[in-house]
Amino acid sequence: MDKDRIEKAVREILYAVGENPDREGLIDTPRRIAKMYEEIFSGIDQDPAKHLEIYFQEEKYEELVLIKDIPFYSVCEHHLVPFFGKAHVGYLPKDGKLTGLSKLARVVETVAKRPQLQERLTASVADAIQNTLEPYGVIVVVEAEHMCMTMRGVKKPGSKTITSAVRGVFASDAKARAEVLSIINMK
């Protein structure tokens, strides 16, 4: 990450909007933004699958593993403003091939920490799990509020965008998919 270049660009943006980047309240803003970008874009060039440590369970558990309400924050690549919400990630293990629960949340976090589209985020999480764990199926549902719809443009705060990605058995078996979706919607 080229933080010096970001700082220079932020100074130019401040000039372009009619501000003085040398006034007291803005002097450190370019540095702060560069540091923030380093953090919120730390998923660029990272493989989310690296988090999916695989272990085998002797009992060969082959029932649903679902983590609901994984919070995430990302940045829309169209306007560079945040979108945030929660992800629900489930899979049906095959042959006792499991991963740690926190590893699924780390996959979501890694994919979210790059300029992103919600649709791509959803599909990327599902693909990383499907390709690495090779389960019977994967389902990912993402609910998010987009600041580009809240603070600009149409200005509709509280509106949610919901995307889903289904792989394997969840793509081919409507009953299995409906069961998982009903569990996700349980309060």
TrEMBL record:
Zn(2+) binds at C76, H79, C148. Keywords: GTP-binding, Hydrolase, Metal-binding, Nucleotide-binding, One-carbon metabolism, Zinc. One of its GO terms (cellular component) is cytoplasm. Residues 6-184 form the GTP cyclohydrolase I domain. InterPro entries: GTP-CH-I_C/QueF (IPR043133), GTP-CH-I_N (IPR043134), GTP_CycHdrlase_I (IPR001474), GTP_CycHdrlase_I_CS (IPR018234), GTP_CycHdrlase_I_dom (IPR020602). GO terms for molecular function: GTP binding; GTP cyclohydrolase I activity; zinc ion binding. Its EC number is 3.5.4.16. Transmembrane segments: none annotated. Pathway: Cofactor biosynthesis; 7,8-dihydroneopterin triphosphate biosynthesis; 7,8-dihydroneopterin triphosphate from GTP: step 1/1. It catalyses: GTP + H2O = 7,8-dihydroneopterin 3'-triphosphate + formate + H(+). It holds the Pfam family GTP_cyclohydroI. GO terms for biological process: one-carbon metabolic process; tetrahydrobiopterin biosynthetic process; tetrahydrofolate biosynthetic process. It comes from the Bacteria. It is an enzyme of class 3 (hydrolase). Belongs to the GTP cyclohydrolase I family. Homopolymer. This is GTP cyclohydrolase 1. The lineage of its organism: Bacteria, Bacillati, Bacillota, Clostridia, Lachnospirales.
